[in-house]
Amino acid sequence: MAGRQRILTVLNQDELDSQPEPALERGVFIARETNAILELFVSEYHPSFYTPLIGKSLHNEWKPETYIRFALSQLQEISERLAHREQLDVLADAAWNRHQYDGIMGKISRIKPDLIIKTTRHDNRLNRTFFNYTDWHLIRNCPCPLMLAKGEDSWETRAVVACVDPSHLHGRMEALDNSIIEIAQWLAYRLKGELYIFHAIDFMPESVFRLWQPGSNYNTYKKESRQEHETLLNELLKPYGIGSQRIHILEGGSAETLLSFAQETNASLVVMGAVSKGTLGNLLIGNTAEKVLDALRCDILVVKSNPLEVKELNAELVFS
User: Fold this and answer.
1) How far apart are the C-alpha atoms of 310 and 317, rounded to whole Å?
2) Inter-residue contact 157 to 193 (CB < 8 Å)
3) What is the CA radius of gyration of the chain?
4) Alpha-carbon distance 89 to 102, whole Å?
5) CA of 89: how far to CAs of 40, 70, 114, 317, in Å?
6) Assigned CATH class of 153-320
7) Quick one: which of 197, 232, 251, 256 has the most CB atoms within 10 Å?
8) Which CATH number fits domain 1-119: 3.40.50.12650, 1.10.4080.10, 3.40.50.12370, 3.30.50.10?
9) For 272-314, what is each residue's pLDDT tens digit?
10) Which residues form a coiled coil (predicted)?
11) What is the Cα–Cα distance from 22 to 24, expressed in whole angstroms?
């Protein structure tokens, strides 16, 4: 990632004074460690401004433009404090939009940030994360790397897990794997953390293998399959100079093995990919992807293979 980076941190105006904003904490932390430009942004809308129950005098005094000026003044106060305290370049902006994601996407198109950070709340009591409609829209359609900050982890370990799938070498998915590796390696290096390369092999069940290849040896099949994956993974990682001690190939389903591996390594961040799909993307997002995103306690970074081509609302998340 050449040149000075620009980080767009999306905040919720209503929560600035009521509870910590993990997205703000991550934005300051990453900007400080990488010398990036940090921009704070809110996209606000309140239907109460348009209800006839509000008196005419209030309408005259308290309009959306007035509210946005108020919100922007709050952000500017925060940005000035951060700039002075952290010695950072901090900008602030606010927009009025009926749908928060439209405001965010508009801001993205204007400034083309290198990274977007947004808070999403994780409830440890329920062991799940509450993704709202804006979160899912950004996961599917955000054209640049999107970090969802969950709040419980303070990045003490600075462990970064990159999820790759070398079985798609020389195809579109290889470009996605390259994007995942590049940003994960860059973050781990700049944040002085540990990089882990994760890949899961979900072998065919032995009962199915017996029907498919009667008389063949199941253990031989597993051994040869693993060797093939190892060869492809080494070929994928060769340009990046990543040592074998950082490569972890686990046996089992992608979702289950990733969750256990993230917990075992005490990961601060999991980097995974999203590729544009057809109408089935919604089903895939709502199935395995939702399970993993819900259960992971650490922050998540969603990366696209070719940001300029991502225009659909549908995407499949890739974990293996």
Assistant:
1) 13
2) yes
3) 22
4) 26
5) 11, 22, 15, 33
6) alpha beta
7) 197
8) 3.40.50.12370
9) 987 655 433 443 444 456 678 778 889 999 998 754 443 333 4
10) none
11) 5
